[in-house]
Amino acid sequence: MWPVDALAFTAFLLGPLSVVATPLLMAVFGEAKVLKVWLVTTWPAAVGFAVLGLVLLALGAYLLGVAAGARAGLTRLLIAPREADLGARVVELARSRVRLVDAFEAERRRIERDLHDGAQQRLVALTMTLGLARPDAPPGPLADQLAKAHEEAGTALAELRELIHGIHPKVLADYGLEAAVADAADRSAVPVDVDLELPGRLSQAVEAAAYFVVCEALANVGRHSGASRAEVSGGLSEGRLVLQVRDDGRGGARAGEGSGLTGLADRVSVLDGRLSLSSPPGGPTLLRVEIPCGPAS
């Protein structure tokens, strides 16, 4: 569109200005050629062209303003639908992110059920069978191999149960966030005080995100902080789930230094939530997460 703008500027401003400058050209060169068309050799004609140029200049300024308004209207006409499309795309993107989170949680629950009802039950049966077979085996290499197989089966069963719990704990699906956080506190290497009060069940995505944030935070407390005690507190406040994990350790924690909190922060942000970490040297360390939420559907 710039050639049209240049043409309008030349026609409405530069042309009239060149006509206004006719007396100046007369004074310098003794004659003037207006717009390269009319040759002016007398002062009365030069003054007349100058007056005409002033009139054309005023008219050109008005027409240039009209052209600018038309250009602005055309621009708005061309851009407005795209802005509307962009807004719709943003809304759809937010909805698709929520759908992906819901689908992800549903898939985690399916995998947990399949492992719990399938592979875990087979390992339990295998462990029991080996345990029953050990007393009947005579002392010797066979008994030793049965004992070793029994121990290996028990270890595999324990690891599978821990894996299932990490994928999606059954206590979270059955009893909700409060019970799951209490269970995580019981399994923590550091004593944990829990002060979490919720009016009821929350959406599955919110419960899962909050639970795994608490688990990762407590794991970090046990591995890195040197703390003697930790505390998990929170509840609902103005339509948001607020959770805080505090410990009395040495502090100095950073979210990006192998703590695993970066991925959890991304997961919380998908739900339009926020995760913040305060850990000055010497402690205490405070992890806070806020997630918009509503009751479970």
Describe the model.
By secondary structure, the protein is α+β, with helices and mostly antiparallel strands. It has three domains: 2-90, no CATH class; 101-167; 176-292, Histidine kinase-like ATPase, C-terminal domain (Heat Shock Protein 90, 2-Layer Sandwich), CATH 3.30.565. The chain has helices at residues 2-20, 22-29, 43-133, 141-167, 170-175, 177-187, 204-225, 261-270; strands at residues 32-34, 38-40, 192-197, 230-237, 240-247, 274-278, 285-292. The protein has a five-stranded mixed β-sheet. It is rod-shaped, with a radius of gyration of 39 Å. The two termini are 54 Å apart. The mean pLDDT is 76.
Q: Key features?
A:
8 helices; 297 residues; 14% strand; alpha+beta; Heat Shock Protein 90; two-stranded antiparallel sheet; five-stranded mixed β-sheet; 3 domains; rod-shaped
